[in-house]
Specification:
Layout: E1 4-7, E2 13-19, H1 22-37, H2 40-48, E3 55-63, H3 66-83, E4 86-99, E5 102-113, E6 125-126, E7 132-136, E8 139-147
Antiparallel strand pairs: 1-2, 2-8, 3-5, 4-5, 6-8, 7-8
Helix pairs in contact: 1-3
Length: 148
């Protein structure tokens, strides 16, 4: 299964992310956003080679819908990494819960300190206007526009 793919958009960046379940779709959505900001493959390669020090930050959010959960967690990841001047490059230990009419998500974001050579595009935020989560044939798909 394709994790995510970038789609044409007139002014910002749009991607579709996929998953067999909501957790995998959320993880792939986070990776697509991180891949917009920085070259996550090069970062991962340099971490494995010992050229960069990897760190981890835990993020969590809750919401009353899967759509809002996606929006909130993407915004949380973006703001947490921006606050510490870091580039995320991976997602681990993602957990999604449902209690009554509330959804929750927590995950560890792997990151490194910002370095210009990995930089791609500065992401300002996640647009809530066209954001959607769909379940299609037993799989999940998100459609996300990020403001650059």
């Amino acid at each position: 299964m394709i994790r995510y793919r970038f789609m044409p958009h007139t002014a910002d960046v749009r991607f579709l992310a996929y998953g067999d379940d909501i957790a995998q779709m959320l993880e792939n959505s986070m990776l697509a956003m991180l891949d917009t900001q920085a070259d996550i493959r090069a970062i991962g390669r340099d971490v494995r080679a010992g050229k960069l020090v990897s760190k981890t930050i835990e993020v969590s959010e809750s919401a009353s819908s899967e759509r809002d959960l996606l929006w909130y967690i993407l915004q949380r990841v973006l703001s947490e990494l921006d606050a510490i001047s870091a580039y995320g490059y991976g997602v681990e230990k993602i957990k999604v819960t449902k209690s009554g009419d509330r959804f929750g998500v927590s995950a560890n974001i792997l990151y490194v300190d910002e370095e210009v050579k990995y930089s791609r595009i500065y992401v300002k935020g996640v647009s809530g206007y066209t954001l959607e989560v769909k379940k299609i044939g037993g799989h999940y798909r998100s459609s996300v526009v990020i403001d650059i």
